[in-house]
Specification:
The chain is an alpha/beta fold and 381 residues long. Helices cover 37% and strands 15% of the residues. The chain is built from 13 helices and 15 strands. α4 runs parallel beside α5 and α8 packs across α9. The radius of gyration is 19 Å and the shape is globular. It starts with 14 loop residues before the first strand and ends with a strand. 55% of the residues are buried.
């Protein structure tokens, strides 16, 4: 058995980047905070514009993980944990292209991401390195399932204490998938949004690294690596459209940011892909914002079997809607029956057996195609 652990002595060589408010532009030193003191807007890392960036050849020679793009991640120095996460397969799906009536379709298969087999391994990899940079030895999260599994797994192999907070009605399978790693598991009576509010208080009181609360500024940057991998795996070019699930909204906004960063550095050329967001109809506040316009999320009470996307008051919903509009994309909400059907035909068309969020994304792709939002010559991821 081979176990990759982060030597404690290496943590001193890793530093987190300073932060800037996305709303008012106020800057502050690197810290485990995600909200601006001045205006309560979200913070994001500030990168040195003069830093040395690798070319295609240099990136291609590196280990196949998300850290091959480390110059675009919010740290100075070498990462110390979760070194094998990311760089999942991009699989062409001709049967799915035929179903959607588009030129080509690729499936980014994060069901094989390490170590917990979900997209959340990317963001947790970034968050745990932020915890290491700040000397935090206890991490946690508010979760509807996949993030709980990822935090528990990453923390276990990094030797960190973990506290996982989940809604009390979460499916038994996901609870077992988290508890096997040995974290402290707290079931909260209420929705994800209730759990998230509790975690904000926990982070303030105990100084723990709650990955999607006070470490969120660093955590979210891990999502950008999906955009980088798509560009590289397509032979250093961009697709014309990308369809992604939306829970808190960070993934869509970070895809937009990631594609633009590679365009700005000349690693790829062409227009930014049109971004399309997918939600379950029983919890679709971002889709509703895209459809009605405006700049304010109207929270909802989740009523869907897709618990992994059931966030009624998404923290990055406004930014996700803005990225969708700026890219020329759109959003779609699908019923629970449609998402279940999407899981089935996604497996039959591609050999990928996704969970409910995958079913939402597949069903939304079909809905968008039928609505004429996708073109016959589109290359879709």
């Amino acid at each position: 058995m081979t176990i990759t652990a982060a030597p404690v002595t290496r943590r001193l060589s890793l530093a987190a980047r300073p932060l800037r408010c996305r709303s008012c532009g106020a800057e502050r030193q690197a810290a485990p905070v995600a909200i601006c003191d001045a205006c309560l807007g979200p913070l994001e890392p500030v990168y040195d514009p003069g830093r040395r960036l690798p070319d295609r050849e240099a990136i291609g020679a590196r280990v196949p993980s998300l850290w091959r793009y480390r110059e675009w991640l919010p740290f100075d120095g070498e990462p110390v944990s979760s070194l094998d996460s990311g760089f999942t397969p991009l699989v062409e799906a001709p049967a799915l292209a035929q179903r959607l009536g588009v030129g080509r379709v690729w499936v980014k298969n994060d069901t094989v991401c390490h170590p917990s087999l979900s997209f959340k391994d990317r963001v947790v990899a970034a968050a745990l390195n932020a915890a290491a940079a700040f000397g935090i030895d206890t991490v946690g999260c508010a979760s509807t399932g996949n993030l709980a599994n990822a935090v528990a797994a990453h923390a276990a192999r990094a030797g960190l204490k973990a506290w996982i907070f989940i809604p009390d009605e979460l499916e038994a399978g996901k609870v077992i998938g988290t508890s096997v790693y040995g974290p402290k598991l707290v079931r909260v009576h209420g929705t994800y949004d209730d759990v998230n509010r509790l975690c904000a208080q926990v982070a303030d009181r105990f100084g723990w690294g709650i990955v999607n609360v006070n470490l969120r500024a660093y955590y979210g940057e891990g999502s950008k690596t999906l955009a980088y991998e798509i560009a590289e795996q397509l032979g250093w070019r961009l697709p014309s459209a990308v369809i992604a699930p939306m829970a808190g909204g960070s993934l869509v906004s970070k895809l937009h940011k990631g594609f633009r960063e590679f365009l700005d550095t000349g690693l790829v050329a062409g227009p930014v892909p049109r971004l399309y967001g997918a939600q379950a109809a029983g919890c679709a506040p971002i889709v509703q914002l895209v459809e009605r316009g405006g700049d304010r999320i109207e929270p909802v009470v989740p009523r869907t079997i897709c618990r992994s996307l059931a966030i009624g008051n998404p923290a990055d919903g406004v930014f996700a809607a803005r990225a969708i509009r700026d890219s020329g994309g759109w959003a779609s909400a699908v019923s629970d029956a449609e998402l279940v059907d999407g899981i089935r035909w996604l497996a039959q068309d591609t050999g990928v057996f996704g969970e409910t969020a995958g079913g939402v994304t597949a069903a939304a792709a079909l809905s968008l195609a039928r609505a004429g939002r996708l073109r016959g010559d589109d290359e879709v991821v």
